[in-house]
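User: I want to check something. If I give you two sequences, will you return the structure for each one separately, not as a complex?

Assistant: Yes, each is folded on its own. Here is the first sequence with its structure:
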Amino acid sequence: MRAILTLLLMLPLLLVVLPVGLYLTVLTAAAPFGRRRRSARPGPLRRVAVLVPAHDEEQVLGRLLTSLAAVDYPAGLMDIHVVADNCTDGTVAVARAHGANVWERQDMERRGKGYALQWLLDRLEDKRRRHDAYIVLDADSAVSPNFLTAMNERLNGGAHVVQAYYTVLPVTGSRAESLREAALALVHYARPAAKAALGASCGLKGNGMCFDQSVLARFGWPSAGLAEDVEFHLMLVEAGIRVEFAPEAVVRAEMPASLRGSRTQNMRWEAGRLAVVRRQALPLLARGVRERDIARCDAALEQIMPPLSVPFALAVVCLPLGIVIGAPVVWVTAATLLAALVTHILAGLMLARVPWRVYRALMHAPTYVAWKAGVYMKALLGRRDRGWVRTERIGSP
């Protein structure tokens, strides 16, 4: 009986926790070497279009537009375009009050950020409004003063697509907010930094993305799925285009004050990502293996692997069970892998230089781990939340 229980506990450790642990260990070791601004350089200033898809964002849009007005970039070289998508509030009035170009869209069938961006780019093309670069920002965000300058320098250095460091905008100071900041420090800072060091593609995170005009001229905005940023990234990697990470450019976005408030948003992300795995990631991985292409292999593996909460939860469960049944091979393996995951977490947080309140919030990490693993399992079992549903936030005038 003990042999059967040992086998049942070892299977998830070897099939799930071990591959994730090895992958993250490699990234942890490489991450400190990926923060150097290798290809950033001064040069000509580009004319930039900032694209802001907004669905009922009256409460928060003004904050983003105010932060854009404060960037250290010539105002004459920046055009802000807000697409008010199926809005029923004062989003349009707020955008106009801040001097943005406003595009109103009504389409109750094709709803979502991807559709809004496709539609806006088509309108700009029709009006022959050409720009050297395009930046996509979520309406609930705020950017660092050097944001556009940093993006311009990366493009001057030869990058075609650049991803900023996308993190949390502190609003409520809640534990859920701080735990979310910890998660983004790992996924949006430590991992992209490691990929930069390894010569892989740093990924698109949905907010704070910059595209050279040649990229959007070639692809447009080709995706309108639940995880359009992931779909677009895999498409770019398949075409041989690598996304560069610019950690010095920071975009902060407001997050729900509670885990319950972010459930719909996370279900949408995980369901969309799982669909991408079946449709794009597995074929990309096969091609990457055949051609020995690290960028293709890594981009696919990033999506195939479950969220960190899943292997972490499995290791935490297997550790005491291994002790109870008297199976050293189980608890030693679980303890070793758990140590590797904890090392990745702490090293990533230190690398991203998160504030002390984020470390304090880790005391409540078990709740977050259980919640996130549950969301992933529901998505894995086929639960789907479709459409563009505005996430509840506190808001800011």
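And separately, the second sequence with its own structure:
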Amino acid sequence: KMSFIEGDGIEAVNKYGRQKTSVLFIDPPYTAGKNGKRAGTRLYTHFELDHERLFSRVEGVKGDFLMTYDNADEVWQLAGRHGFNCRAISMMNTHHATMEEVAIGRDLSWMGA
């Protein structure tokens, strides 16, 4: 079963992260990083997020998870401090330009080399 939740992501992580059978896909507003383009501030009404708090909560998730973020040094540092793996991934934006994002998880070996 798959559910999409629009709302407080940290609250959803707290609720569903306790279940070993849950797999969370977390796609927060991209507002982390001092030098990033900060797309989340432009695209979302509710873009303010304590990224450190989110990473701390995700660290306690019992099941698996995948987070996506803007490719910023601060994001890689946050992930490293919380023991997560990162992988740069290519994506295409709405203007068909190729950009890089970051996939974050405990084990990204399924993504290949």
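Because they were folded independently, the notes below concern the second chain alone. Residues 91 and 97 are 8 Å apart (CA to CA). Helices lie at 9-16, 39-43, 51-59, 73-81.
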